[in-house]
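Title: Comparing notes on inverse folding

I've been comparing how different people in this forum approach sequence design from structure. To keep things fair, I'm posting one structure and asking everyone to reply with a full sequence. Here's the target:
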């Protein structure tokens, strides 16, 4: 029985994309084999769950209405036979994205910057504009 899926049209947008320092992709279908850096892709928890459940193609990130179809209707990747193995092999784990400082750390940094500015201006608080609005707007 052939399982065919249709794209849902819902975008799967990565939170971050970076070069994988440990892996490369070697293309053998060209005249000369070439290597390029593999990509590390960070997805939202919801999208990662759908990818593991077979509703998102691991090759092109297309969101589908059926889990593990025989092939992705967009890139023709054989999802039924290869997706689960590839996800298990390439999944790195949960990764924190964003600043390593907390909001309280950021507040302390801003207070320190204000104090340095105050000392540099001999105790006079001078505020520089953060947004410059052109005249007539």
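Reply #1:
Here's my take.
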């Amino acid at each position: 029985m052939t399982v065919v899926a249709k794209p849902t049209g819902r975008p799967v947008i990565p939170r971050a994309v970076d070069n994988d320092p440990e892996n490369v992709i070697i293309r053998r279908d060209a005249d000369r084999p070439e290597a390029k850096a593999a990509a590390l892709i960070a997805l939202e928890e919801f999208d990662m769950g759908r990818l593991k459940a077979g509703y998102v193609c691991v090759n092109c990130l297309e969101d589908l209405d059926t889990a593990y179809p025989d092939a992705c209707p967009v890139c023709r990747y054989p999802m039924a036979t290869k997706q689960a193995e590839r996800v298990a092999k390439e999944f790195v784990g949960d990764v924190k994205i964003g600043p390593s400082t907390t909001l309280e750390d950021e507040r302390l940094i801003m207070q320190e910057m204000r104090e340095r500015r105050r000392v540099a201006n001999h105790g006079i608080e001078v505020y520089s504009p953060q947004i410059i609005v052109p005249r007539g707007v």
